Amino acid sequence: MPLALLALAIGAFGIGTTEFVIMGVLPQVAGEFDVSIPAAGWLVSGYALGVVVGAPILTVLGTKVSRKKMLLFLMGVFIVGNLLSAAAPTFAVMLVGRIVASFAHGAFFGIGSVVAASLVAPAKKASAISLMFTGLTVANIIGVPGGTYVGQAAGWRVTFGIVAVLGLIGFLGVAALVPEQGRPEAARIRTEFAAFRNVQVWLAMAMTVLGFGGVFAAITYIAPMMTDVAGYTEGGVTWLLVLFGIGMFLGNLLGGRFADRALMPMLFVALAALAGVLLLFTVTAHSQLLAAITLPAIGALGFATVPPLQKWIMDQAPTAPTLASAANIGAFNLGNALSAWLGGVVIAAGFGYTSPNWVGALLAGTALLLSFLAAFLDRRTRAAEPGAAPVPAEPVAAQH
């Protein structure tokens, strides 16, 4: 494993921690600034929307410099945002700090995915991408529970101060270990956005919104679901989230490995199994033991889709892989926001705390149908290419 991948994973760890740890310290933040919990929730949605908006803007601006310089700039933005959050005198300033930090998120993972793929042989690109995302999954095992504990014991400001230090470590790692690669090949804004003329790019982002959105439909409301339905204590929910994070970690690694061998078949299996497990969760959520088994499965299957989708969208936008990759990261966060809203709608309609699982299963099932469409279109395109070899019986996407 190139050491540069370790530097990217450290940056991803810090970003993953700051994205999710706010959920663990939200009551403390709301109490200090004297705002309601729903109002404090803007610190979550504001961050997600910042990723959606910031990812394409900063990625396009970054075409004027080398990818390494842009990664260093993004880590600098991340550090400033978290320091601003840690020292915020008012809730408004805290929200600004969250949005500033979020601007680094999408572009870092988008550019980082391209850099990671460039460091290894073509047959190992998806695995390299998954290794970078390992930092994000480990954040859910160590960073988020640890940051929540520190926030409850020493104050949430200390948590964000520590996250800023993680950003500094990531900055130094990128500076020391990531090689200079020159400017991206597509340095013109028009060329970058031309990638979105390809329907496959839009299909990939739609699969991302719906597939990972299916996971967040359930996970957003995991606390009331597990306490009111399964009968766990509030402290028990923390450990359930650790199990979910372990599932994410394993699914990410397996998704990268198998996507290198057979990309689309891997995606088919992961999305179909995810839809089934989310549907099953409406039943297993009533049992403490079965819920503890189902949660890591949801995490594993959800994150098994990340490396293949990132690789797929980069393959479909060869002239502008960086922007397409960053836009797909924005799609993850758009899916998070959409599914959280839909989950809240069905709960408010009186269908109970397990009803978001039905929503998640429907979203994942729709993503599966889109993956079939994407594979069909890719197969037809390849067959129509002049001089193309006969299309084999195996799914063509497996060659990616």
Number of domains: 2
The description of the largest β-sheet is: none
Quote the average pLDDT.
85
The total of beta strands comes to 0
Element-level helix/strand string: HHHHHHHHHHHHHHHH
- Rg over alpha carbons: 20 Å
Shape: globular
Fraction of residues in H or I helices: over 70%
In the CATH scheme, the class of the largest domain would be Mainly Alpha
Structural class from helices and strands? Answer: mainly alpha
- Here the CATH topology of the largest domain equals Growth Hormone, Chain: A
Describe the structure.
By secondary structure, this protein is mainly α. It folds into two domains: 1-184, Up-down Bundle (Growth Hormone, Chain: A); 188-400, Up-down Bundle (Growth Hormone, Chain: A), CATH 1.20.1250.20. It has helices at residues 3-33, 37-40, 42-61, 67-87, 91-118, 125-154, 156-177, 189-194, 199-219, 222-230, 234-261, 263-284, 288-303, 306-316, 321-348, 355-384. The longest helix has 31 residues, at 3-33. The radius of gyration is 20 Å and the shape is globular. It starts with a helix and ends in a 16-residue tail after the last helix.
